[in-house]
Amino acid sequence: MMTDYVELDVRPILTGGGEPFGRIMETVASLKPGEGLRLLAPFRPVPLFGALGSKGFTHQDREIGGGDWEVLFTPTAGPAASPAEAVGDRWPTPLMHLDNRGLMPPEPMVKVLGAVEAMQAGEVMEALLDREPTFLFPQLTQRGHEWRGGFDPDGTVYRLLVRIGTGS
User: Fold this and answer.
1) What values do phi and psi take at 23, rounded to 5?
2) DSSP 16
3) Torsion-angle region of residue 65: left (phi > 0), alpha (psi -120 to 50) or beta?
4) What CA–CA distance (Å, rounded) separates 110 from 46?
5) Which band of pLDDT confidence, cut at 50, 70 and 90, is reported for residue 87?
6) 0.70 exceeded by the pTM?
7) Cα separation, 6 vs 32, whole angstroms
8) Three-state DSSP class for 87?
9) What residues contact residue 80 under an 8 Å CB cut-off, 6+ apart?
10) Range 90-111 burial, b when 16+ CB lie within 10 A, else e
11) Do 70 and 38 contact (CB within 8 A), yes or no?
12) Could you report the per-residue pLDDT of 128-148, keeping only the tens digit for each?
């Protein structure tokens, strides 16, 4: 089935000093079945990925030039699973928990990488972060670790699960 997209350009709202979150959520609430949201923004709106993911939307984003981004939010059959639900029983319960909220980069990445060095292969850690740790992912992969992550439904906390690999 083809998705029709309702376009919302939040760039003028932000240029005028406004906060577009309410307008975005109003637009999402007004979508008809089978409709998605085409959002235009002056930055990559990462917190929205989790907020709308919890409402049953997947996203595709791309930079469209000049620092502006287009994000297509497409409805799915149901709400997205949390990172813990997504891995199911395949991963053990996290043995280590880090709360890295409120820290400035690169401190969260340094703390996560330091913590994984102290863990054994197969063990899992959970880290709470303020933002998606895009620069951390390649570091974890390079060291042979698996990871899963996503924003909580309110979009304010990024939960990262890391399973320690044999390459550490």
Assistant:
1) -65, -40
2) T
3) left
4) 21
5) very low
6) no
7) 10
8) helix
9) 53, 54, 56, 57, 58, 150
10) ebeebebebebeeeeeeebbeb
11) yes
12) 998 888 788 888 888 988 888
